[in-house]
Write a structure and sequence with these properties.
Layout (H helix, E strand, L loop, with lengths): L2 H5 L5 E7 L2 E8 L1 E3 L4 E2 L6 E2 L5 H13 L26 H5 L56 H15 L3 H10 L23 E4 L4 E4 L15 E2 L1 H12 L6 H7 L4 E3 L2 E3 L4 E5 L2 E10 L2 E8 L4 E7 L5 H13 L1
Length: 331
């Protein structure tokens, strides 16, 4: 058994495994453009769905470090629009830890398929964070803020709106200037699906009825928001981990706080914008995303300096592969 056997011949996407500065394994397969048989490469930009929440979390924590925001600041004191039934006492920390109770425009505990959101509200209208307001602003709170953990996409849309309000820049412009450029992540950004730059992979959904692939352009937001939607490469993700863990994006104490357990329990542990997997007495941070046609996960075992990045533009099961790779390297 080796990593080639574990990944298998049916995986479509990109895999990168590193131990410290050494590459342990890498593989790329499948097509970025299925119809024209254009292959994926290591510099192909893949969509990553909810993985982008980690970038928003870093940006918010940067504002905290600059004294422009506090974790206990309340959204009612920051936002300039009517919150209706939403509790104005929700804090920044509540949003970062998915404990806010804010109405979720896509409640994954109720709705399984993201693309069903767009049956009544055209996805091509979603090109900024505030474009999502009609999908949640009139809904009631899900539960009292701070009372429990429940994964919530709206929370990070609101964080991105707050980021825009304080920085006076679009959230993706801020991320580019304060995260992507400092990390030299030259192939990472938030792009409109009808204006994708070069070297972006299409994301594919298998149509069971017609037994053929279709792209996801009618199934996800036209442009990513605070909830997710960044395009990136596996090597840019490696650069992000390197800069985060070497405290070049945040101070040592803030980085440690981001990667500490703040909410969730059992197999759902959460820091600030990042998941945590318990492995004996070790907490392994990871971020992940899933959309129609998109599957992504990246983990970093700090004790072992083990980086794993997997992304597929055909909805392949990157989560099981990540577990299998980690278990194999743990033997």
């Amino acid at each position: 058994m080796n990593l080639d056997n574990i990944v298998g011949g049916n995986f479509r996407g990109c895999v990168l495994v590193c131990n410290g500065k050494n590459e342990v394994y890498k593989k790329v397969s499948g097509y970025a453009d299925f119809a024209n048989q254009i292959p994926n490469t290591f510099d192909t930009k893949f969509a990553t769905a909810s993985a982008g929440k980690v970038f928003v979390a870093v940006a918010i924590l940067q504002l905290v470090e600059k004294g422009l925001l506090k974790l206990d600041d309340k959204i009612g004191d920051i936002l300039d629009f009517d919150l209706n039934k939403i509790d104005p006492n929700i804090t920044i920390e509540d949003l970062l830890t998915h404990t806010s109770g804010i109405p979720d425009y896509f409640d994954e505990s109720v709705m399984e398929e993201y693309e069903k959101l767009w049956m009544d509200f055209p996805n091509y209208k979603i090109r900024s964070n505030k474009d999502l307001l009609p999908l949640f602003i009139d809904k009631p709170m899900m539960y009292p803020h701070g009372s429990k953990f429940q994964y919530n996409n709206t929370g990070f849309v609101v964080l991105a709106i707050i980021l825009e309000s304080i920085s006076r820049k679009s959230f993706d412009e801020y991320l580019n200037q304060h995260i992507f450029e400092p990390c030299q992540m030259k192939d990472t950004g938030y792009y409109e699906l009808d204006r994708l730059p070069a070297k972006c992979a299409n994301s594919y959904i298998f149509d069971e009825e017609r037994e053929e692939y279709r792209t996801n352009i009618y199934s996800v937001d036209a442009k990513g928001t605070g909830a997710g939607g960044a395009f990136t490469t596996v090597y840019d993700i490696k650069l992000f981990w390197e800069h985060l863990l070497s405290e070049k994006l945040l101070s040592k104490s803030t980085t440690a706080n981001m990667l500490a357990h703040h909410s969730g329990e059992n197999n759902e542990l959460y820091g600030y914008g990042i998941w945590l997997k318990k492995n004996n007495n070790n907490l392994i941070p990871f971020f992940t995303g899933s959309d129609p046609g998109v599957s992504f996960i990246s983990s970093y075992d700090i004790q072992k300096e083990l980086l794993i990045v997997l992304v597929s533009n055909y909805e392949d099961n990157v989560w099981q592969l990540c577990r299998n790779i980690a278990e194999y390297l743990d033997e």
